[in-house]
Specification:
Blueprint lengths: L2 H15 L21 H60 L3 H4 L17 E2 L8 H8 L2 E5 L6 H11 L6 E6 L9 E6 L2 E8 L2 E8 H6 L2 H14 L4 E3 L6 E2 L1 E3 L2 E7 L6 E7 L5 E9 L4 H15 L12 E10 L2 E10 L2 E10 L4 E7 L5 H9 L1 E2 L5
Antiparallel strand pairs: 1-2, 2-6, 3-4, 4-5, 5-6, 7-9, 8-17, 10-11, 11-12, 12-16, 13-14, 14-15, 15-16
């Protein structure tokens, strides 16, 4: 064997014994995780996810409970609100039908007419003079008067009674407009054998009890009577009062007008004597405006008792007030009534003159003299524009 072959053989054996170098399969130096399942890592990851899920579930449960509670509370309130509204509505209807509402409990009735409710928030005009005889007589004859609230019209008051009176058994029979020549203006009602008139005067609301016939005819008979009296007293021939006299009046020719001094300052008395009769109507100044009208009438009686009446009367009479009743004219409140001196009776009226601020007594020596009614209806203060 040649030495070359031997050397080659030894070298070959050495090479075989030398371990093989590992090949660098990752020349970039990056580390890759094995693709196989790593149970330990998966276990840790599962534990973390499981813990978070449990916490999240607890939060969700609380939040759901909160939501459910809010919904329940909201719907409960809604049901209670509807139930409350329904209860109030039913209660209101029942109270209205039974007439037991709070408003009904506080309803006020017209003074002198106990079965007629007064218009809400209206005031009895004569509440400060209710103790006066004239007011008492005014109420006793079935009359009353109320001042409407500020801004309220008469038509609104009429509408109120159109709604409320039928419930009290009243039947509406007539509506008469202002200016009617056949009937007195106002709203007319009947209940059984009773009649009622509600009308406006001086923008206030007035009440008058009537008979059944008067209500159904709209006081036609009263209008006819007034018309006949005016036609009888006022013709084509008439005379005027003196230009400087504080009253304006057209006087029929069959009356003689005379003036005389009065006991009140320098004011004059005027007297109307019907030709061919002893009927006399006097208009006498008695005092300054500002006192109760009944007091002026008492002063007038005292004056008659002191001075006597007329030329043939003796001093020291015994004139007293028989009765008085509140009345109204086209220019303000007044008084009607009568006075007596033993067997002698006079019809009277007390009126105030806004022109000179003086109260006058109209005295008719004959009871039911139509000329007194004519004076009361037609005589006006001198400052009223025609």
């Amino acid at each position: 064997m040649s030495p070359f072959k031997k050397t080659t053989k030894i070298k070959t054996q050495i090479e075989r014994k030398k371990p093989k170098e590992k090949r660098n399969t990752n020349p970039t130096g990056k580390v890759y995780m094995p693709q196989g399942k790593n149970f330990s890592i998966k276990h840790k990851s599962k534990r973390k996810f499981s813990l978070f899920k449990k916490q999240n579930n607890k939060f969700n449960v609380k939040r759901r409970k909160k939501r459910n509670f809010s919904k329940i509370f909201f719907y409960t309130l809604l049901v209670l609100a509807f139930a409350g509204l329904f209860y109030i509505s039913v209660l209101s209807i029942i109270r209205t039908r039974n007439g037991s509402t709070k408003e009904d409990a506080n309803v006020e009735y017209v003074v002198g007419l106990n079965d007629i409710p007064s218009y809400p928030n209206s005031d009895f005009i004569f509440k400060n003079n209710i103790k006066e005889i004239s007011v008492a007589n005014f109420l006793a004859t079935g009359n009353s008067a109320y001042r409407l609230p500020l801004g309220t019209t008469t038509q609104e008051a009429y509408k109120y009674y159109q709604e409320i009176l039928p419930e009290l058994g009243w039947e509406h029979v007539l509506s008469v407009e202002v200016g009617s020549e056949e009937m007195k203006e106002g709203e007319y009602w009947v209940k059984g054998t009773n009649g009622l008139r509600i009308y406006s005067k001086f923008n206030d609301l007035w009440y008058e009890t009537l008979t059944l016939e008067e209500a159904t005819t709209g006081l036609r008979a009263r209008v006819v009577e007034e018309t006949e009296r005016e036609l009888l007293l006022v013709g084509e021939d008439f005379q005027e009062l003196l230009p400087d006299f504080p009253w304006i009046l057209r006087v029929p020719k069959e009356y003689i007008i005379s003036y005389s001094a009065s006991s009140y300052k320098d004011f004059r008395t005027v007297e109307f004597r019907k030709i061919g009769s002893s009927d006399i109507v006097s208009v006498v100044p008695i005092g300054a405006v500002g006192d109760v009208l009944d007091n002026y009438l008492q002063e007038y009686c005292d004056l008659l008792n002191t001075t006597g009446e007329g030329e043939e009367e003796e001093k020291g009479g015994n004139w007293t007030i028989s009765n008085t009743i509140l009345a109204t004219t086209s220019y303000g409140s007044a008084l009607r009534g009568s006075i007596t001196n033993g067997p002698e009776d006079h019809d009277i009226a007390v009126v105030s003159n806004s022109y000179n601020g003086v109260v006058y007594v109209i005295d008719a020596n004959t009871p039911k003299d139509p000329f007194l009614d004519y004076l009361f209806d037609n005589m006006e203060p001198a400052n009223i524009q025609r």
